[in-house]
Amino acid sequence: MNTAQAEGIVVDNLKAAQRSLRIAFVTETYPPEVNGVAMTIARIVEGLHRRNHDVQLIRPRQDGNESAERSPRFHEVLMRGLPIPRYPNLRMGVPSKRALVQLWSVNRPDVVHIATEGALGWSALQAALHLKLPVCSDFRTNFHAYSRHYGIGWLYKPIMAYLRKFHNRTQCTMVPTEALRRDLEAGGFKQLTVVSRGVDTQLFTPLRRSQALREQWGVAPDDLVCLYVGRIAPEKNLATLTAAFEAISRQNPRIRLVVVGSGPQQAELQARCPNAIFAGQRKGEDLAAHYASGDLFLFPSLTETFGNVTTEAMASGLAVVAFNYAAAAQLIRSGDNGVLVPMDDQDAFVRVAVSAAADLAACRAMGVKACTTTSELDWASIVARFEGVLEAVMVRAAAPQALPLRATARRAA
C-alpha cells in the first residue's frame, strides 16, 4: 500500500480538456457544505476549470461513502477529515504532508493555492515548500476574531502569530477588500493583493420574489420582512440582531423576522425571538427565493473578511443594514443603496434598523439601487483576476528579482 492509500486518499484522474496551468487547490471546506467560503471556493475552482486549467482539488472527504466520482469536472483528491466541534456538518483536515509530497512528486503542479489555514492547509504549505513549488494563499476567515466569541480571547495573539507565519511563508496572500489588506499589512502580513468576490446575479435576483412564500410566513404584500442569512453562532453578533428586531417590533408588531441558517445558538435565538420564522439552511433557487421575498436585510456580524450574504442580499433587491466594513463598506453608499453603521456601535445599529423598517417605500427604493450596484460583480472577471495572480506567483518564483507581486499581478490580470 502506498502512502496515498495509507492516508485514505481517493484520486480521480479526469483533467480539463485543454490544460493551461496545473493548479493544486487546497481547501478544508467545499460544497455541499454551506458557508460563504465553500461557495466562493467552488466558484473559483469551477471558473478556473472552465478557463481550461487542470485543477487538482484537494479537500477532506465529507462523509465515509463519498468518492471522487461525484465531481467529474476536475481532478479531485479526497483526504481524511474530522468533524468540527459544534459544527457536525463541517469537516477539518488532518496532517497530510507525507501524502501530499508523494502526490506532488508524481504529479507536480505548476502552482499550489491554499484556501484555508487548518491542518490540511499547513501540510500543503510544508509540502509545497519542501518541493520548491510556487505557493499562494487566501485570507478568508477571521479565526483570530472568532476566538473572542468563544471564551478564548487570550488566544488572539497566538492565532494571529500563526496566521502571520502561515501566510508570510507563501509568495502571495489574496484578500477580498482593500481595507482588510491595510489592516493585515499593519499587523505584519506581507505580499498581500486584493482579489474581490462576485455574486451570481442570475440566481440572486428580485425576480425570485415569491408571494406564496410570504403567505407561508403570514405576511401581507405591504408588510415588511426583516431577513438574516448566516450561521446562528456567537461570532455573528446575534445579540445586536435581536436587540434591533425587538426595537422594530415595539414600533410595528406586524413586521416579521425570517432567519435562514443553522448553528449552535439556534435554541437561544428561538427563545429570544419566539415569533421569528426559522427557515433552516436553504440552497440554490430556494435560498434565492428567501432572499428576494424579504425587504430589509439585517447583518450585524463584525467578523467577516468579506460577507457574501451582503452581495447576495443586495443582488436580490434588499436594503442592507450593516456595519461599515468588509463588503458593506466596499459596496454600500449609506442612505442610497443601503445603510452603514459605525463599527461595533450596537445602539446605532438598532436606531438605524428601526428607522429603515419604519419606511417600507424607502427600503424598497434602496433595494432597487442595491441590485443595480451588484450587476457588475461578475464571477468571470473575478476568476480572471485570480488567474492573473497565480501567473504572477509563478513568475516571481521563477525570477526572485522580478517586480513586486502586486505590480506583476496587475500586468498578468
Present the secondary structure layout.
Elements: H1 3-6, E1 10-12, E2 22-26, H2 36-50, E3 54-60, E4 75-79, E5 81-84, E6 87-93, H3 97-106, E7 111-114, H4 119-130, E8 135-138, H5 143-146, H6 156-168, E9 173-175, H7 178-186, E10 192-194, H8 211-216, E11 225-229, H9 238-251, E12 256-260, H10 266-272, E13 277-280, H11 284-292, E14 296-299, H12 308-315, E15 319-323, H13 326-331, E16 339-341, H14 346-357, H15 360-373, H16 379-398, H17 405-412
Parallel strand pairs: 2-3, 2-7, 3-4, 7-8, 8-9, 9-10, 11-12, 11-14, 12-13, 14-15, 15-16
Antiparallel strand pairs: 1-4, 5-6
Organism: Roseateles koreensis
InterPro entries: Glyco_trans_4-like_N (IPR028098), Glycosyltransferase_grp1 (IPR050194)
Pfam families: Glyco_trans_1_4 (PF13692), Glyco_transf_4 (PF13439)
Question: How would you describe the overall organization of this protein?
Answer:
The chain is of the alpha/beta class. It is built from 17 helices and 16 strands. The protein folds into two domains: about 5-200 and about 380-410, Rossmann fold; about 205-375, Rossmann fold, CATH 3.40.50. The protein is about 40% helix and about 15% strand. An eight-stranded mixed β-sheet has the order 1-4-3-2-7-8-9-10, sandwiched between helices. A six-stranded parallel β-sheet has the order 13-12-11-14-15-16, sandwiched between helices. Strand 5 (about 80-85) and strand 6 form a beta hairpin.
